[in-house]
Every structure is written in structure tokens, then in C-alpha cells.
Amino acid sequence: MTWLALSAICSLIIANILRYARQHDLPFLPIMTINYLQAALFSVFLCFGNEAMEITRLDVPMGVLNSVFYVGGFLLYFEAVKNCGISIAVSVMRLSVALPVLPGVFWFGETLSFYRLIGLVLMTAALISIGHFSLSRVSTRAMSWLLLLFLVIGCSSVVDKAYNFYGKTGKNLYLAALFFTAFLLSALLTRFRGLSFSARIVGTGLLLGIPNQATSLFLLMSLSSVDSVVAFPTLAISVLSGSMLCDRFIWGEALTREKFFLIILSMSSIVLLNLG
User: What is this structure's pTM?
Assistant: First the structure.
């Protein structure tokens, strides 16, 4: 669980850097371009001198495939935010952990015990209540964006699980292919939209790069010893709870009774998932 905890911490670092960027009206696409380049270079650096690394034919193709989901998920997230708000978009993005849980049980032979099932139910209740999800508030167009976001983010997690199951020790090569391809795609989109790079944008992107790579690397390492039925939901709900605490102690937002209840509900779901 140590690797999973480190992945959650890095995810929280990313969330707070992105919040800083949003507060200063920095365009996200150029930031993500620099971030992906930094993450790719860091992954390549970790490949050198790693004599234990075993390269397979899956490393690069699966990394390239997942890069499409990474960039697609990023674009869909901001489209969903525009159509239905941050809380609902984040909730749907976190609920996408249901997708890797299903093949974990039905394809990779993981166990969905009674405790884990109850933990997943509690996690789902916590995430849905964050967004106050109701059909009356979400248009058909917005529902389409949310469904696409759910599928793309979920498929990215499925690819991570599949690579960890079928691959060997070439995780950094897989991540190098992933982030370098994501860099190329986001650079093309940045060019197409006529966006430019400033010193603050480059600096923010460089700050994001290493924790972004570390989040993915630590998650892959945790999947070697923790079932995806536990790993993905635990990571999602930990980041959600941690984000609310960061809002209180870093950004000065009030910790309402509703948020406190959600943190307790989230922690309860994590305990049940790991009891299983």
C-alpha cells in the first residue's frame, strides 16, 4: 500500500498545481504539453542504468495507446467542466474506476468479497453526492460528454492494469512512450489552437511533469501487489478526500459538515476495500 499512498500524494500535488494555474487563468493545454515532455524525459532518465529492466514488445505499443486516452481524457474533462461544472465532472472521472474493477474480477481473477462490494457501494455514494448528480440539472449534451469522460478515463486505467499484468519490468519504457506521444499530441493541439508559451506556463508545466510521471509509476508498482479492485477505488477516494482537506488548509475554504461527512464516508469505504 506504500506505493499507492505515494501515488495519491503525487496526485494531490498535481491537483494543487492545476488549481494554482486555474486561479491565474493560465491556459492548460500549453502547460500539459510541457508537463508531458518533462514526464517523458524523466521516464527515459529512469530507464538508463536499470539493469533489472526487461523490455517486451508490449511496452511501447501499450504506452502509445494509453497516451491517446490520457490526452483525450484531459480534453473531455475540460469540456465536461464547461457543460456541467467541476464537481460533477470530477465525480464522474473518479467513478470511472468501475471499469478497471470489472476486468480485474472477470478477466484477471481478482476477488470481489462482501467487504469490497460494500466499500465500492460507499465509494460510489460519496462520489455521486459530491456532484449532486441529477438528470434535471444535466442536459443531454452534457450527459454525452460525461459518458465519454467516464469511458476514456476508465479505459486508460484498464490499459494500465493490462500492461502491469502482461508486461514485465519495463514500466519506465512504457511511461516514456506514453508521455512522449502525449507530448506530441498536445503540442499539435497547442499549435492548432494558436496558444503560446510564457515563462510562467513553462515553469508550471515543469513542476507538473515529475509528480505526473511518479503518480503513474507508483500506481503501476502498487498494482504488482494490490488488486485493481482495491487499488483504483482507494486511489480515487483518497485523492478526493485529500483534495477537500487541501481546500481547507491550503486554499482557506470552509470544511462544511457535508464535506466532513463525505471524508468519513470515503475513509470508511477505503477501510472496507482493504479488509477484503
Answer: 0.82
